[in-house]
Amino acid sequence: MTAAAFPHSLVDQAPKALRHWRFSRLRSLLAATALATLGLGAAPSTVQAETLLNVSYDPTRELYRELNEAFAAYWTAQGNPAPEIEVSHGGSGSQARAVIDGLAAQVVTLALASDIDKIAEAGRLPADWQSKLPNNSSPYTSTIVFLVREGNPRGIKDWGDLVAEGVQVITPNPKTSGGARWNYLAAWAWAEKNGRDPKEFVGSLYRNVPVLDNGARGSTTTFAQRGIGDVLLAWENEAYLALKEIGEDQFDIVVPSVSVLAEPPVALVEGNIKTDDQRKLAEAYLNYLYSPEGQALAFKHFYRAWDTSKAAPEDVARFPQLELVDIASFGGWAKVQPEHFGDGGIFDQIYVPK
Amino acid sequence: MGRPLIHRSPMPGLGLSMGITLTMLSLVVLLPIGALLLKGANYGLAGIWDTVNRERVWAALELSFRLSLFAALFNLVFGVLLAWVLVRYRFPGRRLLDAAVDLPFALPTAVAGISLTALYAPNGAFGALAAEIGWKIAYTQWGIFIALVFVGLPFVTRTVQPVIEEIEREVEEASATLGASRLYTLRHVILPMLTPAALTGFALALARAVGEYGSVIFIAGNIPLVTEIAPLLIIIQLEEFDYDAAAAIGIAMLLISFAMLLVINLIQVWSRRRIGYV
Questions:
Q1: How many CB pairs under 8 A join A and B?
Q2: Domains in chain A, start-ordered, CATH in brackets?
Q3: Among B122, B221, B222, whose Cβ lies nearest the Cβ of A227?
């Protein structure tokens, strides 16, 4: 009566443990067992399909579903056996933890460089991983925009309007959501550029937040399905997706004057590569993200990618220009993470009673 | 002459069944709890105290245990009533109702949480009604309370039900013929017999509510100091890759739960001594 009415992509927020192991993993295992059993009789030289596990964050479901198909077609066209590619989605931080704790991902595509840094600290990939691929290892970028209700009844135009009395802002908890940290930093950047005390400003913004969900998808549901709040701080790609899935007649996208350049990076997890063939496959997969075809798909799924040569013009033209601040101007994640989001950091201090 | 430590039972198979029991218990219960305590031991008592002794952690612990207690008390009263109705009265749909009691066991907690949120959110069926009288349910402590009542409902009913079935009507009739009023019979004959089982159910419901995460997280709102439950704080510490602090809060919850269950057990022992059986 209730759950069935939700659009499909937005109910996808069962606890992480439930969705972690995708069924296809089991299926491929069974297939492999069956193959191995058959192989006892056949010649041992049969080429076995390489498998690849991509551990990703929450809002990339739709993107990687299409990218994996395109890549598999490309890879077999090169004369390789069809690869078995699996993707696991969840909050960026908990996905990183799963890889640290032993989830055998060959490729990680997470929301924050600091999450991949943690995997590097655990020794599964070299510390200089981010210099291995172009553009800070970020094949696509995004930014943070506002999603408001149709017609923008509250007249929200920029960050400054969010701290007005009575405005309710929906954003996930930066402690548990990678995307929410970008939201927080975007607000911080605007305050710095407009002569406000950023700490004060961000504090009053979060005091206007009635519900702190754990992840970006949860916040989108709270805003879109439960009708809570006047404005949702959202990944740009997530905002466009909400328009597409729920209907353009219900929400408007408002682009603020300043936002962040969110760079969700990708990396090869050296420690989980077992064979040379697997390395070849994983490298080809990551490089494919940078190919004109891969970039076109990123544009199609509302990400700001780099190479427009094969992208549909309307996918590129969609993005308005705005001032984007990158993480380096905050001093990099190594500085930002503990200072703002660490235990007792600036975010925690917002909730210390006066 | 001292009592032997183990009475040799005439039934064979003690060694084998004891061995299986201890192995299973160790694997399933003792090992995880041992790992938690070991993690805490590495962190040190001072470290645990520093982690727990913060306003936000106290607020979360207080919230979790207070609402769990209220939810368990609510379930105690209405669970006994429900069990009584299911056993003593015959009405159409009784079996259906009886089966429905188990639903909270069967339903994935996330599904329960999302459904309850959809119902009690300001634009939901019940939430809209409540909003008219200015009552907010979802995203407040009321929402947490409702989710905890939901997940704990079957415990009291299912533990009390067989006891009510065992009570013979003759006992009540005897009480009546001896001149006791209905209220007196209920208070001094029926309730004492139900108390131990009801307390067991209460303890189970309480323990379940304290640890509940899946359903609460959707309906709580999760605002620090207001609607942030202790299990969420553990998750937050894990997100920061701070396993020690997560273990510290886990140990604090374990200790409080243990103390509460101990008190409930003592009450049970006391009530048994007073009443003498069941």
A1: 86
A2: 3-40+48-140+264-317 (3.40.190.10), 144-261+322-350 (3.40.190.10)
A3: B122
Q: Do A213 and B245 touch (CB under 8 A)?
A: no
Q: Which CATH code is given to the segment(s) B35-275?
A: 1.10.3720.10
Q: Which residues of B touch A176 (CB under 8 A)?
A: 235-236, 239
Name which of B110, B121, B237 is nearest A228 (Cβ-Cβ): B121
Give residue-wise pLDDT tens across range B186-234. Answer: 888 888 889 989 999 999 999 999 999 989 999 998 888 889 999 999 9
Reduced to 3 states (helix: H, G, I; strand: E, B; else coil), residue A225 is coil
CB atoms within 10 A of CB A324: 17
- pLDDT per position as a tens digit, A102-130: 899 999 999 889 899 999 999 999 999 99
Instruction: Give dist(CA B163, CA B159) in Å, integer.
Output: 8
Give the domain ranges of chain B: 35-275
- B242 neighbourhood in chain A, CB within 8 Å: 343
The answer to whether the beta carbons of residues A276 and A341 sit under 8 Å apart is no
DSSP A21-58: S-HHHHHHHHHHHHHHHHHTTS-TTPPPPPEEEEEE-G
pTM of the predicted model, to two decimals?
Answer: 0.78
- What's the N-to-C CA distance of chain A in angstroms? 44
Helix, strand, coil percent values for chain A (each to nearest 5) = 50, 15, 40
